[in-house]
Amino acid sequence: MPINLNEQSEVKSLSSKATTKSSPTIVEGGFQIKGVEMAGRPLYLDMQATSPVDPRVLDAMLPFFLNQYGNPHSRTHMYGWESDDAVEVARGQIAALIGANPKEIFFTSGATEANNVAIKGVMHFYKDKKRHIITSQTEHKCVLDSCRYLQQEGYDVTYLPVKKDGMIDVAHFEKAIRKDTGLVSIMAVNNEIGVIQPLSELGDICRKNKIFFHTDAAQALGKIRLNVDELKIDLMSLSGHKIYGPKGIGALYMRRRPRVRVEPQMSGGGQERGIRSGTVPTPLAVGMGAACAIAMQEMAYDEKYIGKLTKQLHKELSSKLEGIVVNGSIEHRYVGNLNISFSYVEGESLLMGLKEVAVSSGSACTSASLEPSYVLRALGVDEDMAHTSIRFGVGRFSTKEEIEKAVELTVSQVTKLRKMSPLWEMVQEGVDLKTIKWTQHE
Ligand SMILES: Cc1ncc(COP(=O)(O)O)c(C=O)c1O
């Protein structure tokens, strides 16, 4: 249901405390949020950040908010039993999507927690024999930070560089293995550039060397085919909200044979067989299960549909604009991700001008400056180009019309900014900028 902003503002005028800095305020002809005026809601092309809940998922969840609200760990009455049954169905749906046994699935609050449990948990459990971890420079922050935490405890971490296209160099990876390597953590699909890592080759090498193989599959679940046995994956982190499920739920897959052990990161009532204490949130677990069941049925359709829209986006932008570069491998890429840099455009201005399209940028906004993304930096993308990168995330509910609008807005903004760029003018006049010797004025 669309939000009625007039209703919202009425509520706010009754309670000024409800007004937050980022709440929209009504202005003539539209509304203003964070200092930007808009006539309607921006179109959403940021599916790697999060996805809308599929209405079928919401339908599955609602009874567990309203009538079936028992604690799934209550053993003495029907309320508990029915919630427990629903959680187990969801566990089975998640397991089915990755070819696992339901007993190998442990609910968490999301992929961040699953990554923490996998990385810290494995290394803490095997601390007497294994002191080394291999990961990559382009992992999600929660993997990198878990590794840094372990470094502070005295473990060694190898942060593998990636090739220009964002892929791990498998030969290089193999060389990094040591006798005391206890864990390899390489993501399945990169959240910024959509690159799919060679999981099968990495899994083979890990199994041969008897090293546990963990993959952060937050961006891969339900998007690409994942089978834990075929890929020889021992631990896998999953998230609900990237696959049209609810936020606040995820899961960790942990292999039973050969068995992986972890030290739990949370003390408590011993739920989830002691791996993750805390009441399992039934509606959220049911939602994630339903999202997985839908993905299992519709993955092939989604891939085709989303792939077509992304291709349309890429084709139209390329035909209407010169000087655009796709970041990351085109060949080994999730079809719903398009990360593009626009040359001779000022990054911050591009972002500010694109407020009508909800996309992500290759710059992380810190208080004082725009830092180029560490992922793009790892690929060797020039700072200028990293600053002007936009991640378009297309999803199941994106439409052809939204893509057309996004193209129109992006083309007009880039063209406008280039008209103001002296460098662009020089390039148009045929000047090779690389031949220019710039002098610095004191
Ligand atoms: C690759 C990757 N890993 C982990 C996460 C964290 O997931 P969650 O929000 O479920 O904690 C994300 C989400 O941004 C992600 O893209």
Characterization of this structure:
This protein has 442 residues and is of the alpha/beta class. The chain folds into two domains: 165 residues, Aspartate Aminotransferase, domain 1 (Alpha-Beta Complex), CATH 3.90.1150.10; 241 residues, 3-Layer(aba) Sandwich (Aspartate Aminotransferase, domain 2). It is 38% helix and 16% strand. The chain contains 14 helices and 18 strands. Strands 5-11-10-9-8-6-7 form a seven-stranded mixed sheet, with helices on both faces. A hairpin with a 4-residue loop joins strand 16 and strand 17. Helix 2 packs antiparallel against helix 9, helix 4 runs parallel beside helix 9 and helix 5 runs parallel beside helix 6.
By CATH, the architecture of the largest domain is named 3-Layer(aba) Sandwich
Report the sheet-strand fraction: 15-25%
Q: Just give the CATH class of the largest domain.
A: Alpha Beta
Q: Uncertain spans, ≥5 residues at pLDDT below 50?
A: 1-20
Q: How many domains is the backbone divided into? A: 2
Mean pLDDT: 91
Biggest sheet architecture: 7 strands, mixed
Bound compounds: pyridoxal-5'-phosphate
User: What is the CATH superfamily classification of the largest domain?
Assistant: Type I PLP-dependent aspartate aminotransferase-like (Major domain)
| Strands, total number | 18
General shape? globular
Give the termini separation.
58 Å
Helix content: 25-40%
